[in-house]
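anyone seen this seq b4? input:
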Amino acid sequence: MAFLNEDEKKKTIGGSGGAFIGGGSSQGATTGVKDAPTASGNFTNIQNYLTANEGSDAAMGEAAKAQVGASYGEAEGAQNALANEASSSIQSGTPVVDQNTISGIANWQPSNYGQQINSLSRGQTSTYNPVSVTPPPAVAYTGPTSYNQLSGAQGVESSAQRAEERVGLTNNQAGVSELLRGAYANPNYTSGEGNLDAFLTGSGAGGQQQLAQARQQFGDIQQKKGNLYSGIMGQIGTAQNQVADVNNQYDAARTARGDELNQGLENARLKGQEYKANLANEKRKAREVEQNSGYIPGQLMLPTGDVPAIPKGNTGRSSRRTPRAGGASVGGLNTAIPLAHGGKIPYYGIQEILRRKNNEC
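predicted toks r here
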């Protein structure tokens, strides 16, 4: 597309029928539209056309650059949409720690745990089976495992490819011509005119500068796409690690609770051992006291010497007799039982004496 000052005329090459030099305004470029001159008019050869449009290369280069930028913007939009989709899908598929589950583990215990504690602490039992806390169901990551599983991935690929191709068009005359035809979008803008405008664009310093800027500003779309894919895969990896951490926290809570319950059982067992040891010690001390006092367990001791008279029948008679040497006399009955155990009479001896005395009555 050729751009001239307002006081210059738009030129055509040969042809007739109202052909345009340029195709209307695009990306800030202003194009005048005038009736084409007749074949006998001025500038009917290519050199004259180029001379007449000299200086318009920068404007045409800017129009071509805008076409590249438009495709680049579409590719960036597709990439941004994919990034948002990835974040949402990954987040929704990543479980987090459930504090209710943690609390349930911390408060769990077997149904017979209290009974075991009581039996162990009283010494009734001395062994126990270690407690194993039932683990909660493992959580799993349910989000995407790759960027290409996302619905927007195909759009990212196609738009990035198109943007890259548009950048490549700035490297040759045919490509610039295609960009200019896209910029002007005028059906009357012929390929021949496009080629001449492309030649002008690539020949002038201003046009060359605009095309170089297009390559510099918009040439990184594939790199951006790669960075996006790497970022998504990194998010997926982080989410999967987070899920593993959730399960690890549940396992840690389960282990801690099991240790706590088993420590309670062990403490009860030690308490039961201490209880039994104390009980045995008390019994030993009691036996020592009995032995030192002359008491024989299971027997009732009476003092030596005279014993109370035992009535005979219902007569109310009583008598007191002195025991023979080496024996005891109870109620007048000579038992001939040695006064052992410190001069005390065993309980079973008294019972026998009473039985015999009653038989005499």
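The two ends are 157 Å apart (CA to CA). The longest helix spans residues 221-293. kinda curious what u guys think
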